[in-house]
Amino acid sequence: MLLNTLLGLAGEESVFLAEESWQDLIDLPVTEEILQEELEPDACIEVKDMGWALHLCQPEPVWLFLTDRYSPRKIISANAGKWAGPSRQTVVADERTLFLALTEYLSLSLAEELFCESCLFQSTPVHVEERIERLVHLLQPALWEGLHDSEQSDSDTAAAGSSPSKDASILEICCGSGMATQALLRLGLRPLSMDSDRCDLCQALKAGLLDPSRSFALDAKNLPQILPTRSFDAVLGFMVGLIDDFNWPLWRDILLQAASLSRRMVLFTTYTQKEAALIAKAFENASWQGRVIDNRDSHGIYDQWAYMGLRPG
Known about the structure:
- The chain is of the alpha/beta class.
- It has two domains: 2-112, no CATH class; 129-147 and 165-310, Vaccinia Virus protein VP39 (Rossmann fold, 3-Layer(aba) Sandwich), CATH 3.40.50.150.
- It is built from ten helices and twelve strands.
- Strands 8-7-6-9-10-12-11 form a seven-stranded mixed beta sheet, with helices on both faces. A five-stranded mixed beta sheet has the order 1-4-3-2-5.
- Helix 4 (95-111) crosses helix 8, helix 5 (129-147) packs across helix 7 and helix 9 crosses helix 10 (273-285).
- The radius of gyration is 21 Å and the shape is elongated.
């Protein structure tokens, strides 16, 4: 696993993360309890400025990884002095490596049902091939326009079938079972995909539809707590909503918080024109430049409308 590699440990070494989700890595409920115990590690690995792995012998040999990197509560550094005595190593890792390692660990644990007493969903997610193909046709010109310089992005070039750069960094929110993710993969992109529903994510992981190191569960409003501002070329979301007058303030917060992670563009698809218009107005008020796209087909179900926005400057 990536976490073993980061720590310089062999693959057969048992490594456990103290927390069970990205939300827990923000709140640190288990870490706080652990720090109140009298742990007696016989060795430790410090990931400089990011976390600690403690080797415990009882009841079985295991490495326990603790990090407060993503939490406003910096409670580990206050306890690090306790672990200065045991055999100690220090490793250095960058933010991206740590994030992907933790993401992979949590996704694999989720798919192996380590966090569930029983699974209520055993069927493979249903994917509609026609929807995936329609998204490819929508995304290819939109991403070309949004991710290339204006002099390269004329409509003739986009219409000719040019694909977005495979190196583009893409964050997909509300990925659900990964149906829309397949359109991004067909375009040669490797999105980081997330959803608040752990069960949807779990089923997609079990079916091999999502990459464990690039998919995670979290409330999208909390994304800025674990990912840097403007760290992606594009933030995308497919069939966001359903949005109505009652829940619109919540959705507005979700979409604007997610958009803070994009340095170039956003694109969100919806079921109705009203939903797309609400999103467009919110982004206009936040100084984005964009438009509503009519993407209707005869079936009238998925991705009928879209908002595409470009960050000014």
